[in-house]
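Input.
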Amino acid sequence: MPQKQKNNFKELSWEEFYKLPLKNKYDFFIKDNVLFDVIYSQQFSKSILENLFTLASKIRAVAKSKGGHDWLQTLLSHKRAMLYFIQPSTRTFLSFQSACYILGMKVSEIRSTSTSSEIKGESPEDTIRTFSSYADLIIMRHFEPGMAEKAAWILNNTPRPVRIINGGSGKDQHPTQALLDMYTLYLSFQDKGGIDNKTIMMVGDLNRGRTVRSLTYLLKHYKDVKIIYVSPEYLKIGKDIKDFLKKQKMQYIETDNIEEYIKEADAIYMTRIQDEYDINKESLNIDYTKFHLTKKLVKLMKKDSIIMHPLPRRKEIDIEIDKDKRAMYWRQERNGMWIRSALIAYMFSIENEILKYQN
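Output.
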């Protein structure tokens, strides 16, 4: 980024800042060579990803003993986190809450605008400023795309900047879900040549699913990864993602037929239909049963492939498939707590202490 632009961030209005190309904004979210705010998947380099994978596994190992568990809780016991989740969440909320507890952080929460002064007419911007008086980290899930970025912009332009993590922003992105998805792929393929040269099949509501968008951005860091997008015509992956794939020279296929390509896949990433974003109940007109993973389809899979799902699921994975050793989605969910602990540790620059710890 040109030095002139970097120095002029604070002179820009929010509208001017938001319109900047993403690559021109990266420095705004960095302090002391560390990600101060995590808003987009594109902020993660391959080296950061793999350092986080190593750190997550180390935290996991340290926490197994009482001594290690108690020691981890001393590391950020002087810090406070606010979980600002005004869009429904179970896994992401509990995962972040647990991640904060692992590192000893004190945690406050807002789960609805009805329990904050927003119900009195306070703007989301003023609500964020209020939280920053009491927290060192704000983890937020918001129904409005771009709100996490706006929160970071607001707080980085105040006398007391506070870190922001995007826990899901409308139909836009979910970068920490992509982190746990990548960590799951990393663990699953550790002894199978790694993530390089793997074929990832993504199935379902790809147009409105922020998890598949964020995961696609991270897969660019690995060699010769092929993506097979399987969806109804109405729910195909967006043009912006296809433009990104072409720019990165990544191979991808679009189809509406799972059976035709399932034998190729090393990982099948299932998603539910995102009908909470329906305007006129248009999803009711889609036959989604064609995009369900059945026991019949599982028989066609590679013996060493894996099945993933960001959850919650509906009927897109037969419950009987849970017994299959390739079903990774419950382990995938648990991986979220560890990788999010690693992310928080990295953001507060305590990773070296953890990596040097001797059990």
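Confidence is low (pLDDT under 50) at residues 1-7.
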